[in-house]
Queue: 4 jobs
Job 1
Amino acid sequence: MDDTRGVIFDIQHFSLHDGPGVRSTVFFKGCPLSCLWCANPESQRHKAELLYFTSLCTRCGHCVEQCPQDALVLDGTGIRLDRRRCVGCGACVDLCPQNARTLSGKTMTVSEIAEEVRQHWRIFMQSGGGVTFGGGEVLAQPAFLGALLRHLHDEVGFHTCIDTSGYAPWPTLEALLPHIDLILLDLKHMDGALHAGATGKPNDWILHNARTLGRRGFPVVVRLPLIPDFNDTESNLDALGTFMNEAGLPSIEVLPYHDFGVSKYEALGKSYQIHSTSKPRLDRAKDILNRYGLDVSVSRE
Ligand code: SF4
Ligand code: SF4
């Protein structure tokens, strides 16, 4: 039994896009970055939070009556949530007859996650798959991640992968490397100021970690979430290709951006402004990266 606890917001099985083979992906909750285009805005805060889908709500008012914190008010547009009062108890989620409310985030132990993931061992073995830890940001919960990796990689023998922004001091990442088989590493922008403007954080740690992993020959696939008019410019793609060549990082996966997450922004009471990547812009980005002799693939996020 390992009672080390962490906060996650989902576990998905039969994933085909988070590393080789068929995988189970554990999504950590909480991220130090706040990317304008984040497809999982419910992953950004560390604590559990409520999503409210207005289109499903019939304004019956049951949730307002039952909220122990008086955090809900019924007005002309639907249910308004006072996030300062809400403690994330989930009472309003359980009683909603329309499933208009969802609570994102729960605390689980290493043993609980391992038990769920281990049920899929046969398909991992048959497909060459394993377990991926994504988020949110996995490196923001290093003790929890380390305990999961040591158990599932070292003791059980699963292939392990982390999907990360790379935003952590090098020693935090370095300590985990013996228990990781593959890193999927986002390089969102090569310019530090533009990176900070769109994500809330500079890219110094990220570039240092990418460079160090490349020089050590650690298995890394760079991931580029392709955001129109942000990082699909020729100057950024040239800088990225040059950096990867110098660092010895040969593989990049381009993630055409989609706006499927818009409804989640509305459900969290947030606004959203990014538009999907068009096919011509995707093709142009691939052409530029191919000039650098990189192994370029295209996936979906
Ligand atoms: S219980 Fe559900 S359907 Fe009824 S008002 Fe609350 S959110 Fe809307
Ligand atoms: S999660 Fe709990 S505290 Fe928050 S609005 Fe729902 S019932 Fe109220």
Note: The domain at 5-45+107-298 is CATH 3.20.20.70 (TIM Barrel).
Job 2
Amino acid sequence: MILFPDMYVKNAYELPYEEMHARGFSGIIFDIDNTVAPDNGPADDKCRQLFAKLSKMGYKTMILSNNDEPRVKSFADDVGCDYVFKAAKPSREGYAKAVKKLGMKKDRVFMVGDQIFTDILGAKRSGIFAVMAGKLYWKERAHIYLKRILELPVMAAYFISNAVSHFGAKQH
Ligand SMILES: [Mg+2]
């Protein structure tokens, strides 16, 4: 199912980055808003520490955002990585640009985002491993809030199908 993430984590700060690195991933494409920072808000210390920790681990990181350049650039500069702005996610174009900038094969890259119909769908369409991170904050712009309502049945189906396959696996 193209709308289902390959992995779900409570939030981007609780992703098993070490484990993913050991699995062969070395590039990460991040959404900003409500994935690693508040919607339209600046990076905080926790956020800066995350990016520093990832680069120490050996990851190359990239920002992929539908937001405009001033917001995306100032955030990317703050955490110290490159960026693609006005990405028009779920369009594949921005993902291709981001992977090219990372300079590695896309099977070594995973994407972390909080929205199904932009972040996850775009990654899946691009053949990039998609990690859905639960949103960090409740406050967000109205158009995003509307998409949350549309996400509900998809996430419900995702969790049900995971529960079923987990249960099925236990039977063997
Ligand atoms: Mg977002």
Note: Helices lie at 17-22, 45-57, 69-79, 92-102, 116-125, 142-171.
Job 3
Amino acid sequence: MSDVTVIGGGLAGSEAAWQAAEAGCSVELWEMRPVKTTPAHHTEGLAELVCSNSMGNLSLTTASGLLKEELRRLGSMILRSADATRVPAGGALGLAREDFSAAVTEAVHGHPNIEVLRREATEIPEGPTVVATGPLTSEALAKEMAELSGETLYFYDAASPILFRDSLDEEKVYLASRYGKGEAAYLNCPMNGDEYYAFIEELTNAELAPIKDFEEDMYFEGCLPVEVIAGRGPETLRFGPMKPVGLPDARTGEEPYAVVQLRQDDAEGQLFNMVGFQTRLKWGEQKRVLRTIPGLENAEFARMGVMHRNTYLPSNRMLDATMRVRGSEVPLFFAGQLTGVEGYVESSAMGLIAGLNAARMACGEEPMELPQDTMTGALAQYITVKDGTLQPINSNWGLVPAAPKKENGRRLSKPERRELQARMALESLEKFAGLRTEVAG
Ligand SMILES: Cc1cc2nc3c(=O)[nH]c(=O)nc-3n(C[C@H](O)[C@H](O)[C@H](O)COP(=O)(O)OP(=O)(O)OC[C@H]3O[C@@H](n4cnc5c(N)ncnc54)[C@H](O)[C@@H]3O)c2cc1C
């Protein structure tokens, strides 16, 4: 029997398995694909990205940038694989989807302490375990988790379509990154006012795909379907995913009235995904409506948008900030999006904490919390102590201590304050990592 069992080979489970293995434990990683698949996964690779191929902003003036930097410094295998499979994406960490999954699969399969088993867990095994089966946990295990937690929570998440580049009208789309930041990485489909309002009209009247037991208003605000955003008012998309500012068309020198941005999705640049265009429209309707966008008249779809109900746990009543189930007799941990964080990087971060701690307990050591003034530690803290109902949460600046408004008598700008917050978090992490080495050594 292995020292630690990890269930689910997604972002969180792969990270957890790697961390536990690196700490010297023997690890069994159970992944049910391809024996059984989920409604959103398409491959048998570990850490498959189900929708966007972006891990968010790289800048340390963003909460997501800080979280990624912390994970790098904590030795995250997911971040290392992401950095190694980057595609041009302006200031964001865009990934060649398949290469990223292949890098993680290779790292996990190649680790001498990890054995990967392709099987579905229908119940939680005995012994030190990390459950990281994600928002689309298979039914039997979800039932067992509901019994353990007393309730499970859920929300709806949608994925955006992916297009073949050679089906786009290169005369109409143009390459640019917002405000010229980084390399010109996005393909932009420009719209004038008439085209924009005609598109909004089509989008808001298109037919939706039926979903079993669907309840309205249970969306995650950070990932709303494009038709829901459009339904909030005709201008809303122009101030959201279709914002044209900073994206002048080099051919005219002018900013269009609205744009649809496409981000490179594979290393070769043959696939592009529609940024912020997650949707629940029926597939036929998606094709019809999205082909009214200038440049996409003949677009061919490599993947359609879909929406799913996502499960998560009431971690605020169930877990402590080490990701351990409070009061459980055996070391039982949860990780990833199941714990109430949202997003690829956040899920990986909770995988890292759970993996490290499962290994510690397997070695007879106490699990540990990360400092609360780091983004990683603060996220873990938030989801495990939040009052009332836990809503899925991304990394954000409200979680870590605020920076002073002035330094050396000078008022700091917002980006400067963010950088200072990031610096404080990273210093705290370095101090903690130093301590950790001392304890381990
Ligand atoms: C439709 C949709 C769109 C999304 N879009 C985005 C996005 O654009 N950006 C973003 O950051 N996040 C997005 N998310 C959230 C995304 O799922 C998470 O950020 C991330 O994948 C969560 O990582 P995880 O490891 O917790 O779960 P996952 O990556 O889903 O991994 C869970 C793994 O567990 C396996 N599994 C499930 N049940 C069992 C079982 N019983 N036994 C064994 N294995 C099992 C699954 O096959 C899967 O490989 C989206 C989610 C959905 C459903």
Note: The chain has two domains: 4-154+311-440, 162-305.
Job 4
Amino acid sequence: MKYPIHLENRDLIGKRLVSPTSERNRTPIGEHLAKLLPQNAQVLEIAAGTGQHAHHMCGLRTDICWQPTDIDPDSLLSQAAYAQDFPERILDPVELNVTHPEWWSGFENSTTLFCANMIHIAPWNAAQGLARGAGHLLRQGGKMFLYGPFLLETDNADSNLEFDSNLKARNPEWGVRSLDAVKHIFADQGLNLEAIIEMPRNNLLLKFATSS
Ligand SMILES: C[S@@+](CC[C@H](N)C(=O)[O-])C[C@H]1O[C@@H](n2cnc3c(N)ncnc32)[C@H](O)[C@@H]1O
């Protein structure tokens, strides 16, 4: 059985997929990333989906270069369509599966990694693969930004608990991930959780960086 890669109804305008979730969260994410991305950042986006974040961020920050990736061929087509508006700065989308060994090979010039809303709609080994690659790519410095819902030790929002049950009912390998567990798999790769930014609808934007 092939599981869905998202849980929403997406429109298609030309070759561009429109994710209502991205429409909603790209502005608050963009407000933070626009301030946090280093000058001339070379951003590698994992699981870029429709390509809307790449498009939005390259509109906000004219100095950055963005590499969108995904495992899903339809998403790559959509990313390529959005990239046409920024031909120099959004690179040709690349098929990438973070559970593959050494998926990071070829992306060594990345200064920044960004991944939104993947690790709960994928088996846990996707989160582990993401952390492993981030550890390899950011050894010399750089940042990783991870956006999505997370489960806290206590005081979880009802919406996140319900979302977790809903995901597990669809696929027992999915689920809203424990912030603590995510923190640990990145720490094991030499990346420390430097900042936790509270976002709308009980989401978080996490910033990881090497300890040096
Ligand atoms: C809910 S969508 C989020 C898309 C986009 N990041 C956003 O915020 O709009 C989840 C994405 O994760 C991708 N994905 C799932 N498993 C993956 C894997 N092992 N490696 C890379 N991408 C993966 C899916 O193809 C899908 O595009």
Note: The mean pLDDT is 96.
